[in-house]
Amino acid sequence: MRHAEFEDPRLVQVYDAECPWGPDDDFFLTVVGETPAARVLDLGCGTGRLLTALVGDRRYTEVVGTDVSSHALTLAARRLRLDRLPERQRNRISLWQSALTYRDDRLRGYDAAVLMEVIEHLDPPRLPALEDVVFGHARPGTVVVTTPNAEYNVRYDGLPAGRFRHADHRFEWTRAEFTAWAERVAGTYGYRLRLAGVGDEDPELGSPTQLAVLTIDVPDPGHREPQVPPRQEERP
Ligand SMILES: C[S@@+](CC[C@H](N)C(=O)[O-])C[C@H]1O[C@@H](n2cnc3c(N)ncnc32)[C@H](O)[C@@H]1O
User: Fold this and answer.
1) CB atoms within 10 A of CB 77
2) Which residue CA neighbors atom 14 of ligand 1 most closely?
3) What residue's CA is closest to ligand 1, atom 17?
């Protein structure tokens, strides 16, 4: 059953064990740390791996995690020990059940948002709805998107050719496909775009994870474009 993983609490815990803190998380923190982001959204936060780091950083005055799965949010609350936090700390954190395919006014007005390993869990025909919800309606100042690089899959022993890395993935994109998607979204919604690879880079296949940083393209002297290292092929 698709999405079973995120609806069954036991399976969510399995996901948690399989997906420990990784280079994507460090990279995201670096990128967000380079923007004057005080209020951040973790969209599709899952069990809250990244949220714990954001909450631990006093620069972030408000940290919001959203997910379509109530079980994932329950585990995120447990991981954050929300029920034991002092009130002042607790007031900085929100966990909201929200589907990224439906506009949600609560998501408007934030400085930065991350969509980490989330887009590939949506059926491709639902992506335009997500684009509208995130870039058209919520419009965070900076949006960081990560997704697997399908070209790198041949490096994974035991992953048969043509199979996705995860049973719930609806697609996995090559670098050209992700670039085309990110360029179209940036152009449509008025964001500047930087692309990068995350993790050990293979000279032919690229990195295991691809990352896009989209920065809203409005005159705002206080909003500096994050300095993301270019992909290998862009380097001089
Ligand atoms: C692979 S997990 C990633 C979780 C977290 N971002 C991380 O990197 O550990 C994908 C998450 O996206 C959530 N998700 C999938 N479709 C969604 C949707 N339409 N709206 C909101 N969340 C969604 C799932 O419930 C799941 O928690």
Assistant:
1) 17
2) 44
3) 68
- Ligand 1 atom at minimal distance to the Cα of residue 98: 21
pLDDT of residue 103 exceeding 90, the answer is: yes
What CATH number does residue 66 fall under? 3.40.50.150
Domain encompassing residue 72: 4-234
Cβ atoms < 10 Å from Cβ of 29: 16
Span from the CA of 220 to the centroid of ligand 1 (angstroms): 31
**The ligand 1 atom nearest the CA atom of 166:** 1
pTM of the model: 0.87
Instruction: Match 């335009």 to its residue by tokens.
Output: 128
Q: Which three-class secondary structure state does DSSP give residue 80?
A: helix
Residue range 21-45, pLDDT digits in tens:
777 777 777 877 777 679 999 999 9
Percent of the chain exceeding pLDDT 90 equals 70
Partners of 93 in beta bridges = 63
Residues near ligand 1 (Cβ within 6 A): 6, 19, 44-46, 49, 67-69, 72, 99-101, 116-118, 121-122
12-26, 44-58, 73-87, 193-207: which has the minimum mean pLDDT? 12-26
What residues contact residue 180 under an 8 Å CB cut-off, 6+ apart?
none
Count of structural domains, the chain: 1
